[in-house]
Design brief:
Mean pLDDT: 97
Oligomer: single chain
Largest sheet: 6 strands, mixed
Shape: globular
Number of helices: 9
Strand order of the largest sheet: 2-1-3-4-5-6
Radius of gyration: 19 Å
């Protein structure tokens, strides 16, 4: 295997800086985590977007959140078909093994995956329509919900509302998993839908009673 290369120098430098400061000052905590294992209270499903920094938003330390990131923070419907399902596997582990108390879906503004889905729905993204497009096939999860925003004429507002639809779609799909439905109904697990504005630092929470997002 001759294609795996050494880390870039800037990452090596940052690692040594972390080891000499944050780790050195908290090595007892790190060793406790290693010895006792993880006991996160919450799982967060967020977008891969590098601008979405979950631990910073909530001021979380190591061991607090079990985090899964994918394109557009989507959860597919329950599909026990024997195929590979990374997001479903992560959710299963969080709920059935780690016994998290909260499962949070976090969407965000200027989401490239959601915009790609909009482009597909409008016929402007032929490359994403190809069967070979992993991104396109992943965004098929969200396509049926475009009808909820297709009449919005302002492109920016349409995108923002569709980003929120991605969160709601994931919450609904989570409830198709039998072990999640059971945990929610027993009160052992609660689901939460959030949307954050990257530029303004705003955070909104989904209220199922009003079917709307409200500022936190």
């Amino acid at each position: 295997m001759d294609y795996a290369k050494p880390l870039p120098n800037y990452l090596v430098t940052r690692y040594h800086g972390w080891k000499a400061t944050s780790y050195e000052e908290n090595q007892g905590w790190y060793r406790r985590l290693a010895k006792e294992g993880q006991r996160p209270r919450a799982m967060v499903i967020s977008c891969c977007d590098s601008r979405v920094h979950v631990t910073s938003i909530f001021g979380a330390d190591q061991g607090e959140f079990f985090i899964h990131r994918n394109i557009a923070n989507l959860v597919p419907p329950y599909a026990p078909d024997g195929d590979h399902h990374g997001t479903s596997a992560t959710v299963e582990y969080a709920v059935t093994v780690l016994k998290v108390a909260h499962l949070i879906v976090l969407g965000h503004s200027q989401c490239g995956g959601v915009q790609g889905c909009i482009d597909m729905c409008k016929g402007h993204a032929p490359a994403l329509e190809e069967k070979t497009s992993f991104v396109g096939r992943w965004m098929d999860i969200l396509k049926p919900r475009f009808t909820a925003v297709e009449d919005i004429t302002d492109d920016e507002e349409q995108a923002r509302q569709f980003e929120r639809q991605a969160v709601v779609a994931s919450l609904e799909n989570l409830m198709t998993f039998p072990f999640i439905e059971s945990a929610v109904k027993s009160g052992e697990l609660s689901l939460h839908g959030l949307w954050t504005d990257i530029g303004e630092g705003g955070l909104e929470c989904y209220d199922p009673k009003s079917s709307a997002f409200h500022p936190v």
